From TrEMBL, chain B:
Source species, domain of life: Bacteria
Family: Belongs to the asp23 family.
The protein, known as: Asp23/Gls24 family envelope stress response protein
Organism in which the protein naturally occurs: Aerophobetes bacterium
Phylogenetic lineage: Bacteria, Candidatus Aerophobota
Short name of one Pfam family: Asp23
InterPro entries reported in the protein's UniProt record: Asp23 (IPR005531)
């Protein structure tokens, strides 16, 4: 999800929460519904506030139409398919991440490792974030880690199309 | 008695309860090296079966042991499940789909 989508979604949730809270408070009688009606009537008095209200509500309407369409059709795959003539074989991304984390930690110099997987029609992308031991040479360590993970994904798991293995060194211990 | 009628009399019609098929599949899986368990949760059964055109379709959600070669293991599971169900129960298997849901790391 992109940054502007997060902002829009956040605004949507805040508005929804405010509406729900307001409705609940009116329902339990904490304040009268006439207060709400009165407040809205007061806002109607000024042309500027009416314009602002119009923009806000049009924005919310646009968002409610945009979001369902923006997420449709580009949902990320949660499992990676493997070739097999006898049926469909898939492996969940979670399982691959666990696997990669486990195998990556065996590389000398890798102290802490987090793995995330992205699968698309073009192939599999692996993102690794690690804490490294300062004794090891970082370029060598990254190179070894990439080789180990790639070999493992290809030979043990059977994923032929590993597109990219990105490594980020987050911390030197 | 005509030959056709004789054959009809010999034909035995029977039904196999789904539970029996399920139990047999579980037993087959327990014998395959590398399969740790069947993964099931609140929303999804670990072994699902559905009627397809060419026979029974089986979907399995599995947890496998660390170090297992997944393509080979998957093929073995597919073959053994198909063979055993067809041989023991006479039910033809159209396909066996597998989803690897997790790994069991042996300390």
């Amino acid at each position: 999800m992109r940054f502007y989508q997060k902002i829009m979604l956040g605004v949507g949730f805040v508005v929804l929460a405010a509406l729900c809270l307001g409705g609940a408070l009116v329902a339990v009688g904490v304040f009268s519904r006439f207060v709400v009606v009165g407040a809205l009537s007061a806002l109607e008095q000024s042309p500027l506030t009416r314009l602002i209200l119009l923009v806000v509500f049009l924005f919310l309407l646009g968002m409610s139409i945009y979001f369902p369409f923006s997420f449709r059709g580009r949902a990320k795959k949660t499992a990676v398919p493997l070739k097999n003539p006898l049926g469909e074989v898939e492996i969940s991304q979670k399982a691959i991440s666990e696997f990669v984390q486990r195998i990556g930690k065996e590389v000398e110099g890798v102290e802490d490792l987090e793995a995330s997987i992205e699968s698309s029609d073009e192939g599999l992308d692996v993102h690794l974030t690690l804490s490294a031991d300062p004794k090891g040479e970082i370029p060598r360590l990254i190179d070894e880690l990439q080789t180990v993970v790639r070999n493992y994904l290809t030979s043990t798991i059977g994923i032929e199309n590993v597109r990219e293995i990105k490594v980020k060194v987050a911390k030197i211990l | 008695m005509k030959e056709g009628e004789e054959n009809l009399e010999k034909e035995v019609k029977y039904e196999v309860d789904r539970k029996v098929t399920l139990k047999l599949i579980k037993r087959v899986l327990s014998r395959i090296q590398g399969v740790y368990s069947v993964k099931k949760d609140l929303w999804r059964k670990g072994i699902r079966m559905r009627e397809l055109e060419g026979g029974l379709g089986v979907s399995l959600a599995l947890v496998v042991e660390e170090g297992v070669l997944i393509p080979q293991m998957a093929e073995e599971v597919q073959k053994k499940v198909s063979e055993e169900v067809e041989r023991s129960l006479g039910i033809s298997i159209a396909r066996v789909d597998i989803k690897i849901e997790g790994m069991k790391f042996l300390e």
